[in-house]
Design a protein that fits this description.
This protein has about 220 residues and is of the alpha/beta class. Helices cover about 35% and strands about 10% of the residues. Helix 1 runs parallel beside helix 2 and helix 1 crosses helix 6.
């Protein structure tokens, strides 16, 4: 059995990759160099893919910085820093990249059909404080229709499934799952900055730190 796994190198996508591997799938990891703010996450993705033993790891390159629209693709837009967790749920933040998951899932669909895979795993999470529109259940349901209607495989009655095992989990529950699966947290990268160690102040770092703290754990990636 083959599965395509969208892999950013972060906490969520790494957990999903380890889960797919534990479920017996031949894992084809897919990462993206879209001219994001830094390449540190791609280094992490490569390390994680090697650690778990994927069948293949592809990195697709394209340039979303051409039109910006996000703090992750436009360096003129400042990253949010030191925000209260409660404030993160008030509006969709400037770190949202327009239509990113639609683009990612389109590549994953093409890759999956080309290699005759029957699943695409993505680590979206609807409970994340950031509330990105392309991480929610109704969006995923719409993309499932695209997967069914927009492919030969789907029209012939064998649609490629979108698997979202983390969509209704709290960050603490994702960490607990990753711990059971043996995800090497110290090798993952969630920070929006690209320094040698995570900044500890961007939204992504704060969410991750809070979850580890709630579990009474120290995040290994934060130990410089």
């Amino acid at each position: 059995m083959k599965a395509v796994i969208l892999l950013s190198g972060g906490l969520d996508s790494s957990t999903v990759l380890y889960l797919a591997k534990s479920e017996g799938y031949d894992c084809y990891a897919l990462s993206f160099d879209y001219q994001q703010r830094h390449r540190r996450e791609l280094t992490a993705a490569k390390t994680i893919a090697t650690a778990v033993g994927v069948t293949a790891h592809q990195v697709v390159s394209f340039d979303l910085s051409l039109w910006g629209g996000s703090a992750l693709t436009d360096r003129q837009i400042d990253l949010p820093q030191d925000r209260a967790l409660s404030a993160m749920s008030e509006s969709i933040p400037v770190t949202y990249v327009p239509a990113r998951n639609t683009i990612f899932l389109s590549f994953a669909l093409a890759y999956a059909e080309a290699i005759a895979a029957n699943r695409v795993y993505i680590g979206v999470n609807a409970l994340d404080y950031s509330g990105y529109p392309d991480c929610r259940g109704d969006y995923i349901d719409a993309m499932r229709s695209v997967f069914r209607l927009g492919t030969k495989q789907g029209r012939e009655g064998d649609p490629i499934e979108i698997i979202t095992p983390l969509i209704d989990l709290k960050k603490t529950e994702i960490i607990q799952l990753g711990n059971k699966l043996g995800v090497p947290w110290q090798q993952t990268w969630s920070c929006y900055s690209g320094d040698e160690v995570p900044c500890g102040t961007c939204d992504s770092c704060l969410l991750r730190l809070a979850a580890f703290k709630e579990l009474g754990l120290v995040d290994p990636a934060m130990v410089g």
